Amino acid sequence: xxxxxxxxxxxxxxxxxxxxxxxxxxxxxxxxxxxxxxxxxxxxxxxxxxxxxxxxxxxxxxxxxxxxxxxxxxxxxxxxxxxxxxxxxxxxxxxxxxxxxxxxxxxxxxxxxxxxxxxxxxxxxxxxxxxxxxxxxxxxxxxxxxxxxx
Length: 150
Hints:
Layout: H1 9-31, H2 40-58, H3 60-66, H4 69-94, H5 116-140, E1 141-142, E2 148-149
Antiparallel strand pairs: 1-2
Helix pairs in contact: 1-2, 2-3, 2-5, 4-5
């Protein structure tokens, strides 16, 4: 069965290999955001671009079969509530909204920043899922046709 949707076989093969490297780099940026430039927003954008890369190479219908868009939307929505919960937990334990309630650890180590890495992970989920869902929605619905799905 020959697939006509998406780009050429070369682009699909390169995407199949490179998307995992892009995801790995995004996770690296998220987890090391308190030690070097980066963090939740930058890592989230990189992860969203990995999903966008797959969508461009394979087409919208592949993404519709491969990823549950409703789950990504729910994940994006619940990350805001989770961020708020960490903030309230900091208020309850540490005395102020988003106060650090996790041990600081050893300076310049991966687990040395208390709640900052946790917040970076939550922000990255919010940003990556939000950006990808917006781009996917813009690719599916056409405003010039009355907002109907293609």
